[in-house]
């Protein structure tokens, strides 16, 4: 009797537990939809007024101008993309090299300390990165190219690269750690040296994980605001060189949202929406490629 | 090289000889004081119950034990030409080319079949243009050429388990080893694939020196020229009996070996 009572109790407990878990899972998944619908609602006035075309056709961004309002966001999108690609381009080789070193060459003590340092680095607030970039990276660039203001695409790329470096390194390290022992044993059994084991066996096996890390850092970099506001110079233009100032989309939103009036505000929402769509495209493209790769290799 | 003199029981010379080999993992002694010779061109089966150190012993023969932190190997391992395998400064990569290994679970690299040959062959100095011929030769040797010749660019892990194991054997053979170690090569395969691989191992006789760890006594009876029986005794794996397969399997002198081989223990 008691046993059957306790099973009923545990069963109903399980049901409650499942309900709570399902609810929490729905919250985290639904949050994305909520944010997107919020953005769409905010952007709707601009979309309704047919401003979206001007978004991509107007040359300049001067939404507040009474005489000649222009809403061209292309220069800022280009700025966002360039600074992100530069950051990822700088951080990926360094991060992967660092992960390979710590996985295959460094003594375990060093590896542990390095990981702790990187985890700390992730925790450094963006504004500190931006401030540090403004005080050290920008003057350095000015010394390198005296005729420029220093606040530039390059400065943004370097600061962002440092911010995403721990993400690339830690995910690569985890991916290398997850390479099956059997693979490394096979490599050793064939008399492969360390360099070839890394290049021909471990890195290809870890490719998926490394790609996910790069994507994660890409999403982080394209959405980063505080640091780029401080070091990029904030001039909405398509840069001619690494030393030109740029103004990424995020900077624009952060700088103008405070004083934007109705239609201007809707445009800023639009810009945010475009940014989210960009990230979605990256993520979608990545998971599509992964799926293709998975089916291509028979699920391995 | 006094190692050659150790192979008193065998009619042919030893390709590989082991003297007083001990393998330790930290404080744990996995294998103690094993002396054994592997006759040239013959198949030597290492049998015994689980946990008696057969695999540890096998892995120490081409220094794969180096990969395990805390593992220490003492004693002598010598190739026929006097190469000291156990020497701390031995060229481990070169000797692993000379002493190949096939593992229990097939472990092709999850890349194309062709890459599975290119990676090791390039490492050991083969020219790119010589690789296709070599690959075809060894794939024919393991009877896989007809099955895969039209999909060499496809992933090796899309093959069946038995095909993968034959690929791994072909990959090991491609490096022209003198000795091949098999670590229970059939135990992860279905009976038919297992039979195919067993026949392949048997076909290597005379051309190569083979050491095979097996739990399958019938298999040892079918293919082995020599049998070495391992046993866990006094807290460590030990060699308790070795000699020609016919004699050891039919009339072992050690009582534990007798009961094990008679199917009464282990």
In spatial order, strands of the major sheet of chain B run: 5-6-7-3-8-9
CATH class of chain B: Alpha Beta
Helix/strand order of chain A: HHEEHHHHHHHHH
Into how many domains do the coordinates of chain A divide? 2
Which short descriptors sum up this protein?
heterodimer; A: 300 residues; mainly alpha; MetI-like fold; two-stranded antiparallel sheet; 11 helices; disordered C terminus; B: alpha/beta; 6-stranded mixed sheet; 3-stranded antiparallel sheet; 10 helices; globular; disordered N terminus
What's the structural blueprint in terms of helices and strands?
The complex is a heterodimer of chains A (300) and B (266).
Chain A: H1 2-48, H2 51-57, E1 61-62, E2 70-71, H3 74-104, H4 108-123, H5 126-144, H6 153-177, H7 181-189, H8 194-223, H9 226-231, H10 249-256, H11 262-296
Antiparallel strand pairs in A: 1-2
Helix pairs in contact in A: 1-11, 3-6, 3-8, 4-6, 5-6, 6-8, 8-11, 10-11
Chain B: E1 14-25, E2 28-39, E3 43-47, H1 54-60, E4 71-79, H2 92-98, E5 99-102, H3 113-123, H4 131-141, H5 145-148, H6 161-173, E6 179-183, H7 191-203, E7 209-213, H8 217-223, E8 226-233, E9 236-244, H9 245-250, H10 255-261
Parallel strand pairs in B: 3-7, 3-8, 5-6, 6-7
Antiparallel strand pairs in B: 1-2, 1-4, 8-9
Helix pairs in contact in B: 4-6, 6-7
């Amino acid at each position: 009797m008691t046993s059957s009572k306790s099973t009923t109790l545990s069963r109903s407990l399980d049901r409650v537990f499942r309900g709570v878990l399902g609810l929490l899972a729905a919250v985290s998944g639904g949050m994305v939809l909520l944010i997107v619908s919020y953005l769409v609602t905010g952007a709707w006035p601009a979309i309704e007024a047919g401003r979206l075309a001007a978004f991509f056709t107007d040359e300049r961004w001067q939404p507040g101008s009474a005489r000649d309002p222009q809403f061209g966001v292309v220069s800022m999108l280009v700025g966002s993309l360039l600074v992100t690609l530069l950051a990822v381009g700088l951080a990926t080789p360094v991060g992967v090299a660092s992960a390979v070193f710590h996985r295959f060459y460094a003594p375990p003590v060093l590896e542990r300390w390095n990981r702790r340092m990187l985890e700390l680095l992730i925790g450094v607030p963006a504004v500190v990165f931006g401030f540090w970039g403004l005080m050290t990276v920008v003057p350095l660039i000015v010394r390198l190219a005296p005729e420029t203001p220093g606040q530039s695409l390059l400065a943004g790329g370097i600061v962002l690269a440092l911010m995403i470096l721990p993400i690339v390194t830690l995910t690569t390290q985890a991916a290398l750690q997850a390479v099956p022992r059997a693979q490394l044993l096979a490599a050793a059994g064939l008399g492969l040296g360390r360099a070839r084991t890394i290049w021909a066996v471990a890195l290809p096996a870890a490719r998926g994980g490394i790609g996910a890390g790069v994507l994660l850092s890409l999403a982080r970099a394209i959405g980063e605001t505080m640091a780029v506001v401080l070091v990029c110079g904030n001039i909405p233009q398509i840069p001619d060189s690494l030393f030109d100032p740029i103004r990424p989309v995020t900077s624009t939103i952060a700088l103008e949202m405070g004083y934007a009036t109705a239609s201007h505000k809707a445009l800023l929402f639009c810009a945010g929406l475009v940014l989210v769509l960009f990230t979605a495209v990256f993520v979608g493209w990545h998971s599509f490629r992964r799926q293709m790769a998975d089916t291509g290799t028979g699920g391995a | 090289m006094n190692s050659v003199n150790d192979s008193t029981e065998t009619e042919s010379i030893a390709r590989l000889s082991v003297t007083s080999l001990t393998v330790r993992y930290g404080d744990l002694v996995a294998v103690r004081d094993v002396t054994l010779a592997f006759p040239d061109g013959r198949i030597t089966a290492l049998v015994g119950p689980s946990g008696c150190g057969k695999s540890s012993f096998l892995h120490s023969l081409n220094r794969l034990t180096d990969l395990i932190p805390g593992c220490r190997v003492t004693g002598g391992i010598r190739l026929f030409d006097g190469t000291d395998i156990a020497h701390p400064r031995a060229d481990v990569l070169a000797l692993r080319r000379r002493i190949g290994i096939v593992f229990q679970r097939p472990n092709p690299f999850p890349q194309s079949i062709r890459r599975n040959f290119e990676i090791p062959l390039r490492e050991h100095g083969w020219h790119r243009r010589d690789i296709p011929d070599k690959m075809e030769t060894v794939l024919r040797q393991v009877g896989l050429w007809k099955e895969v010749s039209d999909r060499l660019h496809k992933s090796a892990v899309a093959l069946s388990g038995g095909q993968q194991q034959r690929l791994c054997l072909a990959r090991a053979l491609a490096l022209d080893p003198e000795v091949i170690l098999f670590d229970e090569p059939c135990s992860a395969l279905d009976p038919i694939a297992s039979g195919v691989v067993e026949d392949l191992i048997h076909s290597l006789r005379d051309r190569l020196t083979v050491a095979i760890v097996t739990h399958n006594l019938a298999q040892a009876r079918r293919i082995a020229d020599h049998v070495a029986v391992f046993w866990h005794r006094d807290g460590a794996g030990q060699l308790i009996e070795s000699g020609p397969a016919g004699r050891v399997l039919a009339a072992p002198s050690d009582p534990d070996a007798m009961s094990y081989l008679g199917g009464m223990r282990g």
